Amino acid sequence: MKETLLLEIIQEKVKTCEKCDLCITRKNAVPGKGNQNADIVFIGEAPGKNEDLHGEPFIGTAGKKLDDALENVGLTRNSVYITNIVKCRPPKNRIPNDVEKIMCSNYLEGELAIINPKIICLLGSTSYYSILGGKEISKNHGKFVSKDNRMYFVTFHPAAAIYNQKLGKVFKNDIRKLMKELQKLKTKSAD
């Protein structure tokens, strides 16, 4: 399929990217991964240690939290697409800076244009701020936002649930809300 080829081209470009200084400290660039026909794209902040080692998004502890939340609503990794704002791990897991985000923005935009999901789920403050300019995720999680003919859903990063057990329940509830909205959208488009 044309979409598969286009995503593979982006993934190869990510793997060899040298647009910013993150290429110096990374072990592996981490392109997005998942279903090119996904109804939902999840966008996190940046790869962590495990992701950097293996070149795959959300495979560490935060990834396990995401997998649990997906499983809880009947989704699998293979049914969604998972990516990040930046594709290389910032040193010491710091928040990506504006230059790094800008350098990766074409990759992310390319992924979204090819997949054209029904909903884009922003995981955490960095993706919320980077894409929608949002500030306080604690006041805005669980909300849907339309911008540029796309529907976004805001929730906490699954890593937040590692450090705050209460957020684990909130995160799972947010993912349930996301799934209910997706089902409504699918029903509308089927009519």
TrEMBL record:
Q: Which CDD domains match?
A: UDG-F4_TTUDGA_SPO1dp_like (cd10030)
Q: Recorded GO terms, molecular function?
A: 4 iron, 4 sulfur cluster binding; metal ion binding; uracil DNA N-glycosylase activity
Which top EC class is given?
hydrolase
UniProt keyword terms in alphabetical order: 4Fe-4S, DNA damage, DNA repair, Hydrolase, Iron, Iron-sulfur, Metal-binding
**Residues annotated as domain Uracil-DNA glycosylase-like:** 31-176
User: Which biological processes are named by the entry's GO terms?
Assistant: DNA repair
Asked if the Swiss-Prot or TrEMBL record annotates the protein with the keyword ATP-binding, the reply is no
Q: EC number(s) on record?
A: 3.2.2.27
Which reactions does this protein catalyse? Hydrolyzes single-stranded DNA or mismatched double-stranded DNA and polynucleotides, releasing free uracil
**Pfam families named among the record's database cross-references:** UDG (PF03167)
Q: Which domain of life is it from?
A: Archaea
Question: What family name appears in the similarity comment?
Answer: Belongs to the uracil-DNA glycosylase (UDG) superfamily. Type 4 (UDGa) family.
The protein's name: Type-4 uracil-DNA glycosylase
**Organism phylogeny:** Archaea, Nitrososphaerota, Marine Group I
